[in-house]
Amino acid sequence: MKVINVEDAIGTVLCHDITRIIPGESKGPGFRRGHVVRPEDVSELRKIGKEHLYVFDLDDGYLHEDDAARRIAKAAAGPGLEMDEPEEGKITFTAAMDGMVDIDAERLLELNALGDILFATIHGNQLVRRKRKLAGVRVLPLAVPESLVVSAEQLLAKGKPLVRVRPLKPARVGIVVTGSEVYNGLIEDKFGPVVQGKFESYGCTVLGKHLVSDDQTMTAKAIRRFLNRGAEFIVVTGGMSVDPDDRTPAAIRSSGAEVVTYGAPIFPGAMFMMARIGDVPVLGLPGCVMYYRASIFDLVVPRLLCGEDVTREDILALGHGGFCEGCTSCRYPVCGFGKGA
After folding, report:
1. pLDDT at residue 144, as a whole number
2. Which of 87, 162, 183, 326 measures 20 to 30 Å from 94, CA to CA?
């Protein structure tokens, strides 16, 4: 910061608000701190009694807060994002598409530790819809040394983008509905329509639903039938408990699928199975998926649709944050459920 004659201040940044008083009418800031002095401002500044100004001189290796925020935002942004223009020095990131948001939390911490850079995000590893606000960045002072911004840019150039949105890849989905009571027409299938609606909300195409009894061989054949029809994703609803009539886990195994995990530290969703036949995910869905707005389905399926290789360790990590509080008014995904991993 330095004192400078007003006529020499063009192109510099004001360090403080300058008050303009119009007797009997108003009193307020005529020029805000952070304002870059323009040639036409000189006469106005003189009219309100300013011959000298406290300024940051951008020629002395400093960047205005807006320019610094733009450069840091550009370096941090990966695909699938939109950025607005600075408002009070802050740039906001929004999702340009539906998809999974990824945040590099370790480098986010390193970036904020540089000092005078403030970068905040939502939790990563969650499905976001287009236009959702994801992050914001600004610098603390009105102007910062350009060397600080260069350090931030170098940090952000390492590895994957700090923030990105991975698009969902719509899949052809087969749904196998288990249960002798449904197969024999004793009750109406309520599970299949719920799962179909969820997949269609992700842009997927449901190839159809096969109703099967609580028979291991019949269920396994239904899975293989969808595979032969070109299904890229197969789910089996129900039959996932420890009841002796619930045989879905055994049926998935006998279909030729390789089990990744059976059981998940997620409530609701504990009796969940994830398996694969080649590149095709085969999921065993517990009944809670039918009743709860948010469950293991909503935490895992979008990641799979983005092409992520979800592992057993990934599922186990969901235990931190995997307890749904059962709020009277569900606000998911704007809550902590599934956000710990």
Report:
1. 87
2. 326
What does pLDDT average to in each consecutive run of 10 residues of the chain (341 residues)? 84 80 76 84 89 76 89 98 90 97 96 97 95 96 89 95 97 96 92 96 97 94 97 94 74 96 95 96 95 95 96 96 93 89 62
Number of structural domains (the chain) is 3
Q: Considering the domain boundaries, does residue 101 fall inside one? A: yes
Written as six digits, the tokens of 147 are: 């060397």
d(CA 249, CA 326): 27
Q: For residue 268, what is the domain's CATH number?
A: 3.40.980.10
Q: Domain limits at 7?
A: 2-60
Query: Does residue 54 sit in the same domain as residue 90?
Result: no
